[in-house]
Amino acid sequence: MTANSRKFFLIVLLIVAAAAVYYSFVKTIDNKEANIQSADPAEAEASSVYLSELRDLEGKPVAMDEEKLVFVNVWATWCGPCNMEMPGIQKLYDKYKAHEKVAFYIISDEDAETVNPFIARKGYNLPFYQFAGAYPPALDGNAIPRTYIIYKGKILVEEVGASQWDRPEITDLIDKQLAEI
Prior knowledge:
Blueprint: H1 3-38, H2 41-46, E1 54-56, E2 61-62, E3 69-74, H3 80-96, E4 102-108, H4 112-122, E5 128-130, E6 146-151, E7 154-160, H5 168-180
Parallel strand pairs: 3-4, 4-5
Antiparallel strand pairs: 1-2, 1-5, 3-6, 6-7
């Protein structure tokens, strides 16, 4: 290859790479914004953030309590960040488990045969559930862990990725909400 043909090849390669980045990221963001703007506000409001078809680890149906302050964590046993945040969730749960106005839902799409040995090995005493359906749009995502604190159908806190859930800001937020209930 001559020097000129190498320069030409490099320029073409850079243009193709720039176009790929543009269409992968910028166009995706533009399309998402267009979808958000074109969404029917009445439809978005009608969409519940509560999960139907939720089951406990024995396979029994469970209804999410829509009258309580709800802590929802979506996780998996194989997920490193999920495992990192679980001790903090356990501490937060221990603090509020006896409170009649708080409900915890630790949700995985894995079966009980996978989750139960994990729970036993780690010693967690959390309310674990299974959910294999489609998440409501407000809770839908492709990353885990995903955590939400919900009250009366409104998401008060949304966190994607591992977090320390027993930190003072979270307990202050929960205490403030509970004082208003």
